[in-house]
Design a protein that fits this description.
Order of helices and strands: EHEHEHHEHEEEEEEEEH
CATH topology: Rossmann fold
Strand order of the largest sheet: 2-1-3-4-12-11-10
Number of domains: 1
Structural class: alpha/beta
Bound molecules: glutamine
Oligomer: single chain
Radius of gyration: 15 Å
Strand content: 25-35%
Length: 195
Amino acid sequence: MRVGALALQGDFREHLAAVARLDQEGVEVRTPEELATVDALIIPGGESTTIGRLATIYGLMGAIRKRVETGMPVLGTCAGMIFLASGTTGPEQPQLGVLDVIVERNAFGRQVDSFEADLRVEGLDAPMRAVFIRAPWIEKVGGAVDVLASVEDPGGGGIHPVVVRQDRILATSFHPELTHDDRLHSMLIDLAEEH
Ligand code: GLN
């Protein structure tokens, strides 16, 4: 499979390293032409407003939306999850709106900026070490969205989804690309093979 990583900003190189560990071809995607060549796309962590602003300038908003709507599998991590979502609890920013969730950016910020946890993810046989870095959580999910993992708000605000799936869209609040645990990347490649 040819797996693209949106390479406008953020840690796309770490994602491409995961793709290489799985013996698949990885490519940096910055243009609609490059996007057209891939079987699946990864949207990395970074800064979601910057990714959105650059994607608008590079003419990628409509192009990515169209590929996702016609079945291309996509994995969004952290800022990538925010970029896929339909809204945030804060001010408006460029978002693809293909994943029917509302996210809260920097949700853990008041308590802990960054932390790690062993997370049970539905569909994976053993827990995954999850690195959260100024991470969002999901505030509201739409009917077509499956919640695969959640975490407790350290501030006592209840439990919030941090891994979700909607058809061929996978999104995580944390950074699976930083721990050399490639099971979610592998899930993305399986989805691309099925497609
Ligand atoms: N806080 C960032 C944002 O809102 C996301 C952080 C990350 O990707 N690690 O865009």
